[in-house]
Amino acid sequence: MKQVALFSECVSSVLCVPLASQKRSSTGRPDWTCIVVGFTSGYVRFYTESGVLLLAQLLNEDPVLQLKCRTYEIPRHPGVTEQNEELSILYPAAIVTIDGFSLFQSLRACRNQVARAAASGNENVQPPPLAYKKWGLQDVDMIVDHASIGIMTLCPFDQMKTASNIGGYNAAIKNSPPAMSQYVTVGANPFTGFFFALEGSSQPLLSHVALAVASKLTSALFNAASGWLGWKSKHEEEPVQKQKPKVEPATPLAVRFGLPDSRRHGERICLSPCNTLAAVTDEFGRVILLDVTRGLAVRMWKGYRDAEVGWIQTVEDLQERETEKMDSSPFGNAQGPSRVAQFLVIYAPRRGILEVWSTQQGPRVGAFNVGKYCRLLYPGYKIMGLNNVTSQGWQPQTYQICLVDPVSGSVKTVHVPFHLSLSDKKSERAKDMHLVKKLNALLKAKTSDPDLIEAEAKELILDIKYPATKKQALESILTSECVPLSSLTNITQTLMDNLKKQELECVDEGLLQFCANKLKLLHLYELVSKLNSQSIQKATSPSDNDLAKLLRLEEKDFHRLETLLENYKKENTQTTTQLTDEKDDVLSVKMFLEYLEYEKDVITVKNMEDGEYVALGSFFFWKCLCGESSTEEMCHALESAGFSPQTLLSLLLNLWLSKEKDILDKPDSVSCLHTMLSLLSKMKVAIEESWDTQSVSPWWQQMRSACVQSQSSAAALLSAHVGHAVTAEIIHSVTQKKFSQIIVGSDTESWEALSLDSEYWKLLLKQLEDCLILQTLLHSKVTKRTKRVSSLQTEPLGRLSVKKLLEAGKGGIADTVAKWVFRQGFSPIILNVAQYKNTADSTEESVEMHNNLFLEEPEAATGLERILELLQVAYQQFPCSLEVDVLHAHCSWECVVQWNKDPEEACFLNRSIDHLRCIINAHIQHGIALMMWSTFLVKRLSSATYLMDKVGKAPKDRLCRRDVGMSDTAMTAFLACCSELLQTLLEADVSSDEMQAPVLDTEDAWVSVEGPVSIVELALEQKRIHYPLVEHQFVLCTVLYAIMRLSLKAVKPLSLFDSKGKNAFFKDLTSIQLLPSGDMDPDVLSIRQQFLLKVVSAAVQTLCSSQKDREVSEEDYFPFEKGKNWPTLAADLAQYLQISEDLVRMHYVCELYSYGMDHLGEEAFLQVADKEVLASQLLMLAGQRLAFALLHGQIKDGMELLTRLPPTLSTWLKAMDPQEIQNVDVPIATTARLVSKVIEHLPENHGQYNLALNLIEAVEAIPA
């Protein structure tokens, strides 16, 4: 132990107490561990795991001898008193018990306050006081250890006996026995002392805890070397407290009785988990077992010097208990409470042995050589803070007991089976369990001789007495993979014969029936394996005509079916998952027995996973479907064994539908399926006798249900054709018999009997054919994708089934195709090309369209013709569901949904707008656009607007990601798309007045669809927009886009609008809002004008920088998305913003001339209305050019030429500032042409006309 500089104290006892978590998600689990340390000074201090001192308490001035804890345990019986949690502290002559609930709350509060104090630096915190009891133990010479038994209540007899011993013959007896807290101490005189404290005789004391909060975080987290327990260096010493904490006096408590052995000194006491027994060690090397309830020593072990002891409590598993006819056990039958056994663990370090003893008088049940330097750890408590509610679902987080071996560095635990506590006739159970263990070891042994395994297994299973254990042993044998089938059959038969030889009263009927059932299943397995191994001569593959007749199809329909299946095979590149690596017809006996149950002469299949179901069906039927085994014999064998036809049909269909790839490669499997289905249909109770043509047979309905749910479209279609054909044959035979009784000798061969089942088959065939065509389309893909593909486009599409399409609603088919279009990255134009491919031949126009089929990758055209053909087939099959407008609507919605998942992929939103613009019907276009705006765009646009208004310029990437959730580049594209969407919405609103709303139809086969409302139906239900409000929002979007795209600065977009205009933004576009009207505030108009002029200037600047690299025409003068002409757009915005368009156009012309792009300026000049004012502005610009040429040395002898000019012109030129124009390096000839244009548009009476004449003369006089 280390000395503490301040108090000269030593550590005398340490305890780790895990505290339960109070969180709902982890109720009953440990949250953190409190470390309790007792010192020789009498202090008890509480720390966190990291060494932060929570509280320190001086409860007694004597050294702390022992710290022990008791945690909550659920009472095993209703009459048992519920024990409270507590922490007990032993001093040389006193014991202090701290209430567990009070301690738990105080520690939590201290931990929270210390954390807050460390964060804020505030030390003035007051934790709640501790509630404790302090007893002064009297009449004992020496105490070294103790055990707190808890609260106990005496029975009336014990109450009277105790009262007589204490008070004599005339002692008064209370009506109800008092509750007492019992304490047991070990030491000397007496060797063990028993103390009883009446509840309520002493009030709990409230202490003022000393909270330790460090002033700095560095001093709060103590280092392991010197400060973990609060010991500090001289420089870190805290000032000594001026006044010691007040120590409350102890309540006297005399020893009631004890074991008075004057020569024996006790060393330690260990209480059992059920609080009824305790193990005490002494200096003589004895271990004494105490009955703490009666105060008696009931057993003693000798020769265990320096022993360490602990306890193990084992609970019986109720499922293993067998009800016995002659058993009169007080614990009842299997439905009674679980029994509990106590085992004492003794570690004798001098002998290096660990022993486990059954208590109280039981034998030694285990002994282990473990070494002489180990430590036995037995805490005796679990988690503090649990109660009767939170402990219900609590699972043990720690071991009851463990042995630490410092030599090997290992930790070992002890597990004791419950049956080891049983004695007398119960020992047979232990023997049976030993035989079961021996049998399991035999089955796991690597023995190559099956006869030897069979002989030993028979001997072992016959030696077992208990029927339940016999059944357990037989199950182990049957589930073993190393025992062959013949041995399994022999062992089961031997056990069954042995049971039959016994007297009827002694035979367990359940075990006998179990053996009989397993034996029948083993015989069935043997028969099926034999049939599968018998090879028969395969019949010749049927021709196409034979198959067509078999399926009752005309030649044209049969060839169409072949074509559909061939297309499906080509496109279905996904490999079918193989269930096992073994052959399809091989199934182990173990799995066979696990899959099936035999009861009352009927075999049922257990609930299994799909793969296991297919494996069982494959074992029965795959050889038959391949034509390699006799179908008739197999069906007869399975029917005789006890299989119902419905179960066999389910197994057959699951196999067929899971082996789609193999079936398509074996055309003759269809005829085998026809044969097998015919045989199954002729079995008893397959088709009920009351079935007629006007009712639906559950037999055929079962088959149709399997086809509807199957995701193997081709296999389902083939099985449906076979089912339809067999149904038609049976109906024909039934009808023929019926008519033959009425009309003898009539010709009924050419008749086709109608039935309800046939109509259902025809409907299903149409649905499966549609599903197959759709699945073929979804499997197709372009083979060349060179550019980066988003992870959203690589997500696999789920396989289709008729059930999925029926539950997907009216828009399910279009939605499925839209998902495929999105993943392929197709341009919207490909949908139109496929629609009109029938009428359009391969002309130059169609070739040009083909070259633009991809938005992202124009070169990815491999396999495009194939895809167009499949799309065309799909359009023909679904004329209503895949109508072009409907498909574009779903594609538009799918793209915007995917964009919303990853806003960085601006191309998805762009493609969504492209699909939207391809919608012809304005009503659908209007609804989709409005839903896209309100669902996905308006919220992000609002965030972008307020961000740009806040920073007053185009925000940087970091701000865009923080506020809008996308990069600055993606936000620019987003704003462009918003502007495009609103423009489309405006156009659709106008166009919808000129056309009628579409009528949405559904194909006849899919009328019964159920599910969510389609996107198109929702779109048609949308209200009409308020046109001026959308126009108002469109102006804002365009302004925002211009700021981002042109990187404008010092522009607040919301400052361009008054209060009415600001309030109208981001409102429901169908609502009527108060919009600006009348004359606008001049200040706002001034800001708008400055903004528009900035847009034009920035556009011309960008144009100039792009012209330095190449010559650009006016049509493509600015590389903006979708050909935006910003100067023209600025002029259009001027209309909305009440600014003169001519002013914007004049500024555009001046900017072009300022940058020296005179050829574009001349073209733009023509669009200006007030050419006189523009000419006056351009005259100034020409003067600035000439001034630079003359005054800044562009022309040789410029000053000399300047002196020759008229004085008025010379003075005017000197006043010009050439720095105001962007490009001064312009040829004189170009400037001369500009001056000529100015003179042409200036009237003669204009004030600057003469100046212009002088200027043209001066320019012409300058040599080129």
From TrEMBL:
A molecular function (GO) held by this record is: GTPase activator activity
Keyword Signal annotated = yes
What GO cellular-component annotations does this UniProt entry give?
cytoplasm
| PANTHER family tied to this protein | RAB3 GTPASE-ACTIVATING PROTEIN NON-CATALYTIC SUBUNIT, RAB3-GAP REGULATORY DOMAIN
Keyword Signal found: yes
Question: What is this protein's name?
Answer: RAB3 GTPase activating non-catalytic protein subunit 2
- The organism named in the record is Taeniopygia guttata (Zebra finch)
Q: Which InterPro entries match?
A: Rab3GAP2, RAB3GAP2_C, RAB3GAP_N
What are the record keywords, sorted?
Coiled coil, Cytoplasm, GTPase activation, Signal
* Domain of life of the organism encoding this protein: Eukaryota
Q: Localized where?
A: Cytoplasm
Q: Which residues form a coiled coil?
A: 551-585
Q: What is its main location?
A: cytoplasm
Gene this protein is translated from: RAB3GAP2
Q: Please state which protein family the record places this protein in.
A: Belongs to the Rab3-GAP regulatory subunit family.
Which residues does the UniProt record annotate as the domain Rab3GAP regulatory subunit C-terminal? 648-1243
